[in-house]
Protein backbone atom coordinates (compact mmCIF):
# COMPACT_ATOMS: atom_id res chain seq x y z
CA UNK A 1 0.00 0.00 0.00
CA UNK A 2 3.04 2.29 0.04
CA UNK A 3 2.31 3.47 -3.49
CA UNK A 4 -1.30 4.20 -2.56
CA UNK A 5 -0.21 6.18 0.52
CA UNK A 6 2.10 8.17 -1.73
CA UNK A 7 -0.59 8.72 -4.35
CA UNK A 8 -3.10 9.91 -1.73
CA UNK A 9 -0.56 12.32 -0.30
CA UNK A 10 0.14 13.79 -3.74
CA UNK A 11 -3.57 14.01 -4.65
CA UNK A 12 -4.31 15.77 -1.35
CA UNK A 13 -1.33 18.10 -1.74
CA UNK A 14 -2.63 19.39 -5.08
CA UNK A 15 -4.71 22.50 -4.69
CA UNK A 16 -5.58 25.47 -6.85
CA UNK A 17 -2.53 27.65 -6.17
CA UNK A 18 -3.24 31.38 -6.41
CA UNK A 19 0.15 32.78 -5.37
CA UNK A 20 3.48 31.72 -6.85
CA UNK A 21 7.13 32.45 -6.22
CA UNK A 22 8.94 34.13 -9.16
CA UNK A 23 11.52 31.33 -9.47
CA UNK A 24 11.37 29.56 -12.86
CA UNK A 25 11.04 25.80 -13.20
CA UNK A 26 13.87 24.07 -15.08
CA UNK A 27 12.96 23.28 -18.68
CA UNK A 28 14.10 19.64 -18.24
CA UNK A 29 11.76 19.21 -15.27
CA UNK A 30 8.83 20.72 -17.17
CA UNK A 31 9.52 18.32 -20.03
CA UNK A 32 9.62 15.38 -17.60
CA UNK A 33 6.25 16.40 -16.13
CA UNK A 34 4.71 16.78 -19.59
CA UNK A 35 6.06 13.31 -20.43
CA UNK A 36 4.34 11.97 -17.30
CA UNK A 37 1.10 13.63 -18.45
CA UNK A 38 1.34 11.91 -21.84
CA UNK A 39 0.55 8.61 -20.04
CA UNK A 40 -3.04 9.87 -19.78
CA UNK A 41 -5.56 7.45 -21.33
CA UNK A 42 -7.72 8.72 -24.16
CA UNK A 43 -10.54 7.34 -26.27
CA UNK A 44 -8.97 4.93 -28.84
CA UNK A 45 -5.58 6.34 -27.79
CA UNK A 46 -6.26 9.46 -29.88
CA UNK A 47 -4.27 11.70 -27.45
CA UNK A 48 -6.17 14.77 -28.65
CA UNK A 49 -4.20 17.34 -26.62
CA UNK A 50 -1.68 20.02 -27.51
CA UNK A 51 0.00 22.07 -24.81
CA UNK A 52 1.59 25.50 -25.30
CA UNK A 53 3.77 26.60 -22.39
CA UNK A 54 4.76 30.21 -22.08
CA UNK A 55 7.32 31.93 -19.84
CA UNK A 56 9.60 34.96 -19.78
CA UNK A 57 8.97 37.88 -22.14
CA UNK A 58 6.13 36.12 -23.96
CA UNK A 59 4.28 35.65 -20.66
CA UNK A 60 4.95 39.28 -19.68
CA UNK A 61 3.53 40.44 -23.02
CA UNK A 62 0.46 38.26 -22.57
CA UNK A 63 -0.11 39.40 -18.97
CA UNK A 64 -0.16 43.05 -20.05
CA UNK A 65 -2.50 42.36 -22.98
CA UNK A 66 -4.95 40.33 -20.89
CA UNK A 67 -5.09 42.74 -17.96
CA UNK A 68 -5.59 45.61 -20.38
CA UNK A 69 -8.45 43.79 -22.15
CA UNK A 70 -10.21 42.55 -19.03
CA UNK A 71 -9.90 45.88 -17.17
CA UNK A 72 -11.35 47.72 -20.13
CA UNK A 73 -14.37 45.39 -20.23
CA UNK A 74 -13.58 43.20 -23.27
CA UNK A 75 -16.09 40.33 -22.93
CA UNK A 76 -14.86 36.71 -22.97
CA UNK A 77 -15.49 34.60 -26.08
CA UNK A 78 -14.91 30.89 -25.79
CA UNK A 79 -13.73 28.50 -28.51
CA UNK A 80 -15.19 25.64 -26.49
CA UNK A 81 -18.73 26.23 -25.28
CA UNK A 82 -18.68 27.67 -21.76
CA UNK A 83 -20.64 25.90 -19.04
CA UNK A 84 -24.12 27.13 -18.14
CA UNK A 85 -25.14 28.50 -14.76
CA UNK A 86 -24.77 26.33 -11.69
CA UNK A 87 -27.96 25.41 -9.81
CA UNK A 88 -28.78 23.89 -6.41
CA UNK A 89 -25.90 22.28 -4.53
CA UNK A 90 -23.51 23.13 -7.38
CA UNK A 91 -24.31 26.82 -6.99
CA UNK A 92 -23.88 26.50 -3.20
CA UNK A 93 -20.44 24.93 -3.66
CA UNK A 94 -19.46 27.61 -6.20
CA UNK A 95 -20.38 30.37 -3.73
CA UNK A 96 -18.70 28.57 -0.83
CA UNK A 97 -15.42 28.22 -2.78
CA UNK A 98 -15.52 31.90 -3.79
CA UNK A 99 -16.29 33.06 -0.22
CA UNK A 100 -13.43 30.97 1.18
CA UNK A 101 -11.04 32.56 -1.33
CA UNK A 102 -12.36 36.09 -0.67
CA UNK A 103 -11.92 35.58 3.09
CA UNK A 104 -8.22 34.82 2.62
CA UNK A 105 -7.89 37.91 0.38
CA UNK A 106 -9.81 40.22 2.74
CA UNK A 107 -12.42 40.76 0.00
CA UNK A 108 -15.98 41.63 1.05
CA UNK A 109 -18.29 39.45 -1.01
CA UNK A 110 -20.65 42.41 -1.55
CA UNK A 111 -17.88 44.72 -2.76
CA UNK A 112 -18.07 44.46 -6.57
CA UNK A 113 -14.83 46.37 -7.18
CA UNK A 114 -12.89 44.19 -4.73
CA UNK A 115 -14.33 41.06 -6.37
CA UNK A 116 -13.25 42.34 -9.79
CA UNK A 117 -9.74 43.03 -8.44
CA UNK A 118 -9.61 39.49 -7.09
CA UNK A 119 -10.68 38.11 -10.49
CA UNK A 120 -7.97 40.14 -12.21
CA UNK A 121 -5.28 38.06 -10.45
CA UNK A 122 -6.21 35.31 -12.91
CA UNK A 123 -4.88 37.42 -15.76
CA UNK A 124 -1.65 38.20 -13.90
CA UNK A 125 -1.26 34.39 -13.66
CA UNK A 126 -1.18 34.82 -9.86
CA UNK A 127 2.49 35.80 -10.22
CA UNK A 128 3.43 32.46 -11.81
CA UNK A 129 6.50 32.33 -14.06
CA UNK A 130 4.81 29.87 -16.44
CA UNK A 131 1.41 29.41 -18.03
CA UNK A 132 0.16 26.45 -20.03
CA UNK A 133 -2.59 26.54 -22.63
CA UNK A 134 -4.32 23.30 -23.52
CA UNK A 135 -5.86 22.97 -26.97
CA UNK A 136 -8.21 20.27 -28.27
CA UNK A 137 -8.74 19.44 -31.97
CA UNK A 138 -10.74 21.98 -34.00
CA UNK A 139 -13.50 19.45 -34.68
CA UNK A 140 -13.27 17.85 -31.22
CA UNK A 141 -16.34 17.47 -29.03
CA UNK A 142 -17.19 16.33 -25.50
CA UNK A 143 -15.07 13.18 -25.79
CA UNK A 144 -11.95 15.11 -26.70
CA UNK A 145 -12.65 17.78 -24.05
CA UNK A 146 -12.90 15.02 -21.44
CA UNK A 147 -9.63 13.43 -22.63
CA UNK A 148 -7.85 16.79 -22.56
CA UNK A 149 -9.17 17.46 -19.06
CA UNK A 150 -7.72 14.14 -17.91
CA UNK A 151 -4.40 15.17 -19.42
CA UNK A 152 -4.60 18.41 -17.43
CA UNK A 153 -5.24 16.49 -14.21
CA UNK A 154 -2.30 14.11 -14.77
CA UNK A 155 -0.09 17.14 -15.44
CA UNK A 156 -1.31 18.86 -12.26
CA UNK A 157 -0.66 15.74 -10.17
CA UNK A 158 2.82 15.42 -11.70
CA UNK A 159 3.45 19.07 -10.80
CA UNK A 160 2.28 18.40 -7.23
CA UNK A 161 4.53 15.34 -6.99
CA UNK A 162 7.47 17.57 -7.97
CA UNK A 163 6.65 20.11 -5.23
CA UNK A 164 5.16 22.53 -7.76
CA UNK A 165 1.74 24.16 -7.84
CA UNK A 166 -0.85 24.91 -10.50
CA UNK A 167 -4.16 26.67 -11.00
CA UNK A 168 -6.43 25.46 -13.81
CA UNK A 169 -8.17 28.54 -15.21
CA UNK A 170 -11.34 28.58 -17.29
CA UNK A 171 -11.07 32.38 -17.02
CA UNK A 172 -8.06 32.33 -19.35
CA UNK A 173 -9.88 30.36 -22.04
CA UNK A 174 -12.25 33.31 -22.57
CA UNK A 175 -9.55 35.28 -24.40
CA UNK A 176 -8.21 32.99 -27.16
CA UNK A 177 -7.56 35.71 -29.72
CA UNK A 178 -5.40 37.72 -27.29
CA UNK A 179 -3.52 34.56 -26.30
CA UNK A 180 -3.03 33.54 -29.93
CA UNK A 181 -1.73 37.02 -30.84
CA UNK A 182 0.65 37.35 -27.88
CA UNK A 183 2.09 33.85 -28.31
CA UNK A 184 2.08 34.03 -32.13
CA UNK A 185 0.02 30.85 -32.38
CA UNK A 186 -0.92 31.35 -36.04
CA UNK A 187 -0.37 27.66 -36.78
CA UNK A 188 -2.37 26.26 -33.86
CA UNK A 189 -5.59 24.92 -35.44
CA UNK A 190 -7.08 23.64 -32.17
CA UNK A 191 -9.65 25.13 -29.81
CA UNK A 192 -8.44 26.57 -26.51
CA UNK A 193 -9.94 24.46 -23.71
CA UNK A 194 -8.09 25.55 -20.58
CA UNK A 195 -5.34 27.83 -19.32
CA UNK A 196 -3.19 27.02 -16.30
CA UNK A 197 -0.66 28.96 -14.22
CA UNK A 198 2.12 26.91 -12.69
CA UNK A 199 5.39 27.22 -10.80
CA UNK A 200 6.65 27.04 -7.23
CA UNK A 201 3.76 27.75 -4.84
CA UNK A 202 3.98 30.54 -2.29
CA UNK A 203 2.69 28.49 0.64
CA UNK A 204 2.97 31.50 2.97
CA UNK A 205 0.38 33.48 0.98
CA UNK A 206 -3.00 33.65 2.79
CA UNK A 207 -4.80 32.23 -0.28
CA UNK A 208 -3.13 28.89 0.53
CA UNK A 209 -5.67 28.62 3.37
CA UNK A 210 -8.64 28.52 0.99
CA UNK A 211 -9.30 24.78 0.77
CA UNK A 212 -12.84 24.12 -0.44
CA UNK A 213 -14.17 20.92 1.18
CA UNK A 214 -15.29 17.83 -0.71
CA UNK A 215 -18.45 15.78 -0.49
CA UNK A 216 -18.09 12.59 1.54
CA UNK A 217 -17.35 9.25 -0.11
CA UNK A 218 -20.91 8.16 0.82
CA UNK A 219 -22.26 11.15 -1.11
CA UNK A 220 -20.49 10.27 -4.35
CA UNK A 221 -20.55 6.48 -4.58
CA UNK A 222 -23.33 3.89 -4.72
CA UNK A 223 -22.44 0.20 -4.46
CA UNK A 224 -24.66 -2.40 -6.15
CA UNK A 225 -24.11 -6.06 -5.50
CA UNK A 226 -27.46 -7.88 -5.64
C1 LIG B 1 -11.79 23.41 -15.32
C2 LIG B 1 -11.43 24.31 -14.15
C3 LIG B 1 -11.45 25.67 -14.31
C4 LIG B 1 -11.08 26.51 -13.24
N1 LIG B 1 -11.01 27.87 -13.45
C5 LIG B 1 -10.54 28.65 -12.47
C6 LIG B 1 -10.30 30.04 -12.71
O1 LIG B 1 -10.53 30.56 -13.81
N2 LIG B 1 -9.78 30.78 -11.71
C7 LIG B 1 -9.49 30.24 -10.48
O2 LIG B 1 -9.00 30.97 -9.61
N3 LIG B 1 -9.70 28.93 -10.21
C8 LIG B 1 -10.19 28.13 -11.18
N4 LIG B 1 -10.35 26.79 -10.95
C9 LIG B 1 -10.00 26.21 -9.65
C10 LIG B 1 -11.24 25.75 -8.86
O3 LIG B 1 -11.90 26.87 -8.33
C11 LIG B 1 -10.75 24.81 -7.77
O4 LIG B 1 -10.16 23.67 -8.36
C12 LIG B 1 -11.88 24.35 -6.84
O5 LIG B 1 -12.42 25.44 -6.13
C13 LIG B 1 -11.41 23.29 -5.85
O6 LIG B 1 -10.30 23.80 -5.11
P1 LIG B 1 -8.92 23.04 -5.07
O7 LIG B 1 -8.47 22.84 -6.51
O8 LIG B 1 -7.99 23.98 -4.33
O9 LIG B 1 -9.12 21.75 -4.38
C14 LIG B 1 -10.73 25.94 -11.99
C15 LIG B 1 -10.74 24.55 -11.85
C16 LIG B 1 -11.06 23.74 -12.91
C17 LIG B 1 -11.01 22.24 -12.72
3D structure, described in words:
Helix content is 43%, strand content 12%. With 226 residues, it is an alpha+beta fold. It has a single domain, classed as NADH Oxidase (3-Layer(aba) Sandwich). The chain is globular and about 60 Å long. The structure holds flavin mononucleotide. Flavin mononucleotide binds next to strand 3.
Could you state the CATH homologous superfamily? Answer: NADH Oxidase
Strand content: 5-15%
Going across the biggest sheet, name each strand in turn: 1-2-4-3
Task: Give the CATH topology.
Answer: NADH Oxidase
The total count of strands amounts to 4
CATH level-two architecture: 3-Layer(aba) Sandwich
The rough form would be described as: globular
Domain module count: 1
Head-to-tail CA distance between termini: 29 Å
State the name of the first-level CATH class: Alpha Beta
The gyration radius over C-alpha positions equals 18 Å
For the residues shown, what is the average pLDDT? 97
Number of helices: 8
Query: Which class do the helix and strand fractions yield?
Result: alpha+beta
Q: Main beta sheet: strand number and arrangement?
A: 4 strands, antiparallel
Short description:
This protein has 226 residues and is of the alpha+beta class. It has helices spanning 2-13, 27-37, 56-71, 88-105, 112-120, 142-161, 176-183, 217-220, and strands at 50-55, 130-136, 165-169, 191-199. Helices cover 43% and strands 12% of the residues.
Amino acid sequence: MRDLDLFEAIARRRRAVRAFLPQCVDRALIERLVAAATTTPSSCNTQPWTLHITSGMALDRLRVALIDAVSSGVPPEYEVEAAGRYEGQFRERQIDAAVRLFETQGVDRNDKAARAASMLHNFAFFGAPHAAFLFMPPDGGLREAADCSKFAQTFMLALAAAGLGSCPQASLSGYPSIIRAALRLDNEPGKLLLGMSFGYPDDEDPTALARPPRATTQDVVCFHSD
